[in-house]
Amino acid sequence: MKxxxxxxxxxxxxxxxxxxxxxxxxxxxxxxxxxxxxANDGFTTAFWSAVWSSGTFFQSFLYxxxxxxVSITLSVGGALWATLKFRKQLEQKFLSFILxxxxxxxxxxxxxxxxxxxxxxxxxxxxxxQMGWISQPSQFPDLVNxxxxxxIVLSFVTxxxxxxxxxxxxxxKNERVEELSVLAQALGxxxxxxxxxxxxPILIKKTWVIIVLYFIFLLGAYEVPLxxxxxxxxxxxxxxxQEIKQYDLDRISEGYVIAVMYTLIVxxxxxxxxxxxxxxxxxx
Amino acid sequence: MKLSWKPFVLSLAVLLILFxxxxxxxxxxxxxxRFPDLFPSYIGLKNxxxxxxxxxxxxxxxxxxxxxxxxxxxxxxxxxxLISRAVFYHPKKNxxxxxxxxxxxxxxxxxAACLSFFFLKMGLFGNVMGVIIAQFxxxxxxxxxxxxxxxxxxxxxxxxxxxxxxGNRWQTYIKVLFPLAKGLLxxxxxxxxxxxxxxxxxxxxxxxxxxQTLTIKVFLFIKEANYYYGALSCCLLIFPPIVLxxxxxxxxxxxxx
Lengths: 284, 257
Prior knowledge:
The complex is a heterodimer.
Chain A lengths: L1 H31 L13 H9 L1 H35 L2 H8 L6 H12 L4 H8 L19 H25 L2 H10 L4 H29 L3 H6 L7 H9 L4 H26 L10
Helix pairs in contact in A: 1-12, 2-12, 3-7, 3-9, 5-7, 7-9, 8-9, 11-12
Chain B lengths: L5 H24 E2 L10 E2 L2 H4 L8 H31 L4 H13 L2 H14 L6 H19 L6 H12 L4 H12 L1 H17 L2 H6 L7 H10 L3 H30 L1
Antiparallel strand pairs in B: 1-2
Helix pairs in contact in B: 1-12, 3-6, 3-9, 4-6, 6-9, 7-8, 9-12, 11-12
């Protein structure tokens, strides 16, 4: 009886958590090979060849990868620095609440706000005009929808740095880094050694899976690059949706090719991250 | 006397965090705020008073966002908690957990684009129920993985103790598991509520513009270059999560600590 109930619950898990993903992947795969789809008439590798030879996917992947890498490096670096320098102050009641506020801002609002500040007629452009630095909006530098993705990176950093700061503060407390640091100092370590041998290794080791997860989330981000990205290259999710929603029916299949490639990449990342489970250091 | 630079940096950080909220409220109260004006020529409640009119549809969007998010949060939290028990006590726990990570890690908008065919066939395209089910599919793995740390040896021994003392499964849940997991259940509810509340890409694909949640409205106003209503929608989008965060921090985290 107990086994039957457990099997039913596991089946429910498969139905909700596994089948939709598998169905979506198989559908995209079949579409990408021309087996299904309105204008498709049988198996073909033409769409894969087209995507492969055009280089759109690789360009978009490289672009998304670079943006995600820069954003995550700045966010993690900034949060580590703030934890190191301001940990005691950030434990105060008022500041600890203020730190949570950015978590209440969704990507679409961050994108909108960044656009309001940094567009050619935005808030900073107006300040530039009032200060006499520019005489018309076109003289303001391209900081949104720009080639270096300044707006996207800035939005990502403001969105995730507070999260990492809260995470590091929590790990610092739970892993008793303070006590370990005092012990190291008592044994003759200087401040630099404490940072390099205790603070950084413990915090990074305890949070690296979350850091990689956030990198993957940024790789597939949609709302922010949709508002602040440029025409070409685009970030992966924006490119996929743009291709799939095309009126040119051939391009839809190419969109699914990119979706399949993206899904394979994140799935491999998930396997590498979560499959080789090492035994926990202690039983919980 | 050496002056410390820390208070200056911290004050700047606080201002930078609060600035977006102040700016969005100001923009929502403004009209005719054009380049090169640094401040709007009009500040008042004109835009906010229009929330109540049907012209903007913001009140309807707020209500449908609330309905969708509450439904997704309740169903995901309850099902995530109940199903996670079977998953994390299962001999093949690692494989099952890995399977849960696939939908969790994939961009929701890409997931929705690949799933849209099935939603169309099932008559779930362009309606609230379809959006709730689609959002549940991405919130469920989060809820399931969230409870992974709860099912440990200590909890299992409590369950065994209840069984030894003659308690049935129902009593185990009501008297032991739910009280033990109360804080985590609340946090999971808040988090899945926020996942749904903030969702744009998936909702735009499955809702095809017919289900106009607040995030969809924000984007529509941005496309129309109606930044005042855009800011107003942003305010409506931000304030419920702030209230949730406040209660989360004040009551839930404190109890967990």
